[in-house]
Structures are given as structure tokens and as C-alpha cells.
Amino acid sequence: MRELLIDFITTLDGYASGDGWPGWWGLEGPEYLAWLGEQPLVTYLMGANTYRLMSSFAGGEPPAGTAAIEAEEEASLDDLTRAPKVVFSASLEEPLTWANTTLVRGDAVQAVRAMKAEGSGILSTLGSISLCRSLLKAGLVDRFRVVVFPVITGATGAERIYDGYPDVALDMVSTRTFDGRIQLLEGVPRLLAGPPGVNKNP
């Protein structure tokens, strides 16, 4: 049985990116980058928007208005290019230009449920906020990992991550601080019917 990991990087106020900010909000350090390089091989899952963005970076043609990628980000993109990837989309057309990517047109939840049941190894999301939300609501997520960068992008933040989520409790399994500033939080998610201790049937 494969394990499914939701993997986000985020600001303190829960944004996935910020207009005009560099990748990793310019706060990546040697400990964090070394940890990224130590991660095991996974199969990445994503939606069409994430595929278009990341494949354009990997192809050397970042979208207009995005910050230039740095050397550390290029190395991370090279790792992504070599890794197996699955994109769920009804709009993309084959052949896909990003190497090692498979296109799935059917229902993503059903497809991921089938992928989890076959073989072994780790499935991990890459961005794709709405896909992650759907997989979590379907009860398919085994681990939820968030790396929090110590910035608040109240004026420039883009892509709010948790809007539309159900209430979720995390049974924490790992925490770590990188470079004295970046926080790793990792836990097993439990979907809640509501806040703990609230009697829903008085």
C-alpha cells in the first residue's frame, strides 16, 4: 500500500506564494536545502495549473511577471524533472513536454485511490491546492507536511492554502527547525465533524 503525503511550503499566514517575492521567500538556507536533497524518491501528483507553471520553469521559460529562479531552485527543478509525475487534467494535451510525466484524465480521487492500492513507495502532492483539498476530504491522505517560512504576506500573498478545508486535527509525528528560522510540521490528519468537545446532538 502506497503512502500519500500532502506537502506544502507556506508563509506564516497560510499563503503558497507572494507577488514579487523570490522562491522560498528568499529565506532558504543550507540546512533546509540539504534536507531537500535527502528526500526519498517519490511520485509527484499535481493539477494542470501546477503542471503548466512548473514545466515552464523546468523548460527555462518562466511565466511573465514571475521572479527569476535561483541556482538552488534550478537544482530542485532538475530533481523534479527526473522524478515520476502524474498530472490530472481534462484540458492538457499529449504529448506532455515535461519528462517523466503521465497524464490522467479521469477523476483524480478515484485514480489516487487506485494508485495507493498498487505497489509501494510514496505519493506526494506538488502544489495543487484544490487537488490536495479533494484528496484530504476523501480520506486518502496519510501524512500532512508543512514547511513554514517566517514571513507574513498580508499585502502580497497569493494562493491561500486552507480556504475550503474541513476542520482537521493533526497528530504530530515530526517537527524541526532549519537554519534557525524555517519550521517543519508533520502530522497524521484526522477530519473533524466540528471543534473538539462540541456536542453536535444535544
Structure characterization notes:
- The protein is an alpha/beta fold and 202 residues long.
- The chain has a single domain, classed as 3-Layer(aba) Sandwich (Dihydrofolate Reductase, subunit A).
- It is 25% helix and 31% strand.
- It is built from five helices and ten strands, in the order ββαβααββαβαββββ.
- It has an eight-stranded mixed β-sheet with strand order 5-4-3-6-1-7-10-9. Strands 2-8 form a two-stranded antiparallel sheet.
- Helix 2 (48-58) crosses helix 3.
Chain-wise SSE layout:
Elements: E1 3-11, E2 15-18, H1 30-37, E3 43-47, H2 48-58, H3 71-82, E4 85-88, E5 101-104, H4 108-117, E6 122-125, H5 129-137, E7 143-149, E8 157-160, E9 168-178, E10 182-191
Parallel strand pairs: 1-6, 1-7, 3-4, 3-6, 4-5
Antiparallel strand pairs: 2-8, 7-10, 9-10
Helix pairs in contact: 2-3
Shape descriptor: globular
- The first-level CATH class name: Alpha Beta
* Low-confidence runs: none
Main-sheet strand order equals: 5-4-3-6-1-7-10-9
Approximate helicity band: 10-25%
Can you tell me the number of structural domains?
Answer: 1
**Computed Rg:** 17 Å
At CATH level 2, the architecture is: 3-Layer(aba) Sandwich
Helix count from the secondary structure assignment:
5
Provide the structure class: alpha/beta
- Count of beta strands: 10
Order of helices and strands: EEHEHHEEHEHEEEE
Into which percentage range does the β-strand content fall? 25-35%
* First-last Cα distance: 40 Å
What do the pLDDT scores average to? 90
Q: Name the CATH homologous superfamily.
A: Dihydrofolate Reductase, subunit A
CATH topology: Dihydrofolate Reductase, subunit A
